[in-house]
């Protein structure tokens, strides 16, 4: 019995390690990323533009009924978790940008920093 318990502990440790590695691969952290002084107008809007988000998420009939044009609209998806879930490719969210390359690790960290700081209109 004692051996079985030990085996279970060992196996859990192994699986936990695998999971951790996978998460690191999917979500690498850019240690040189500057997440200070991020702002809506100076950081978030340029990143959304540079990553082609507005091509689908603006206008009268935005994709998925999600608009990313204007502070109020972006704030909504920032607060309900969808913005970070989508760009971070978190399971349970639709990975964005659809059909495009994942945003850089630094861009994702900067948007997350803006969200964590309260998603303010700065
Ligand atoms: C080619 C068109 C296209 C582009 C480019 C695109 N999206 Fe989307 N997006 C969609 C469609 C279609 C949906 C709704 C269907 C779905 O959820 O897959 C969606 C859904 C979303 C959602 C909701 C996700 C969820 O899980 O509910 C968010 C947030 C989002 N997009 C943000 C972005 C951001 C941020 C970018 C830029 C990095 C982006 N999108 C680029 C087409 C696009």
Q: What gap, in angstroms, lies between the N and C termini?
A: 60 Å
Poorly predicted ranges (pLDDT <50, ≥5 residues)? Answer: none
Count helical runs. 6
Beta strand %: under 5%
What is the tally of beta strands?
0
Q: Say which molecules are bound, naming each kind only once.
A: heme C
- Write down the overall mean pLDDT: 88
**Main β-sheet: number of strands, strand sense, barrel status?**
none
Classification by helices and strands: mainly alpha
Q: Number of folding domains? A: 2
Element string (H = helix, E = strand)? HHHHHH
Rg, please? 18 Å
Based on CA inertia axes, which overall geometry fits?
globular
Roughly how much helix do the residues carry, as a percent range? 40-55%
Blueprint of the fold:
Elements: H1 2-26, H2 40-50, H3 53-56, H4 71-79, H5 82-87, H6 105-116
Bound molecules: heme C.
How would you characterize the overall build of this protein?
The chain has helices at 2-26, 40-50, 53-56, 71-79, 82-87, 105-116. With 122 residues, it is an all-alpha fold. The protein has two domains: 1-30; 32-116, no CATH class. It starts with a helix and ends in a 6-residue tail after the last helix. The structure holds heme C. Residues 48, 51-53, 55-57, 63-64, 66, 77, 82-83, 85-87, 93-94, 96-100, 103 line the site of heme C (HEC). Residues 48, 51-53, 55-57, 63-64, 66, 77, 82-83, 85-87, 93-94, 96-100, 103 line the site of heme C.
Question: What labels describe this entry?
Answer:
single chain, 122 residues, mainly alpha, 2 domains, globular, binds heme C
């Amino acid at each position: 019995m004692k051996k079985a318990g030990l085996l279970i502990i060992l196996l859990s440790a192994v699986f936990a390690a695998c999971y951790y590695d996978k998460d690191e691969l999917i979500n690498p952290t850019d240690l040189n990323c500057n997440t200070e002084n991020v702002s809506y107008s100076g950081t978030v809007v340029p990143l959304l533009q540079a990553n082609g988000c507005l091509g689908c998420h603006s206008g009268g009939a935005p994709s998925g009924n999600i608009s990313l044009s204007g502070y109020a609209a972006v704030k909504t998806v920032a607060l309900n978790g969808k913005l970070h879930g989508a760009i971070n490719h978190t399971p349970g969210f639709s990975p964005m940008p659809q059909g495009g390359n994942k945003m850089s690790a630094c861009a994702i960290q900067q948007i997350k920093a803006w969200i964590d700081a309260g998603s303010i209109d700065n």
